[in-house]
Amino acid sequence: KFVKRLSLVYLFYFILLSPIIVPNRGWLDMGFPDGLLVLVKDMLLRYTYPGSWFLSALVVSSGIVLVLLRMRLKSWLLLTVFFLFYLYLSNMDELPPAWYAPVAWYEVHVRNIGLSFPTALFWISIGACFSTTNIQNLMARFKRYAIGIWGLFFVFFILEFMKVELKGMWIALMVVCLIVLFFNMDLKPSPIYIRLREYSILFFFWHFIVLQVYKVVFHGQHILQFGAWLYPMTLVPVFFIATLILWLENKRYFKWLKYSH
Question: Which of 14, 56, 73, 221 has an alpha carbon 20 to 30 Å from 5's alpha carbon atom?
Fold first, then answer.
């Protein structure tokens, strides 16, 4: 269900932006079947439009984890293996040069590995493992230590804010702290949580689109010239677009807009 939903969101923006991306990505120029193969490769391993790599990474990594779970592999085993792989990727610059060869091959033939599915495997395996009853029972025991966990999280947050480079294990521990804290919060069901999720997805994709529009409007000038003003220049139109979409999708002829998030 999760993979299906993400795939529909991917297809929504692909179709929406196809008049722009299809002529400029060169798939048609390559002919058949080369163009089709490159298109499939871009969809699964690279990107077809700005931000699409994020959905691709989630879909592919979720599919891999799901298949491995159905092969009777334990979720904790997957988490352990993918965590070690995550540490390998995040500490690449501290390893011997020979260890970089597999990543170098991937980045030459596919793309930056940090913007593709291998990096997402660890985060998806966290979700798979933490959804099990045993792990949830274990997390419940940490409720009494909430203040300490909040303190640990804010230490990591302050270090990140101070531009102290946190790698691998520390980033993972920061995320786990948040998971444990929110799991033990007595939050009452509310439509606001669903609305926040919808806004976050719409903000993610439409900020790319708005920035591309600015590049066209300002004739290719570097948009960073606007400095801090670029934030409200992007936030305001994106907010109005997201609000309009969420309002229109409840209307008779615009229900298809629900696939945008």
Answer: 73
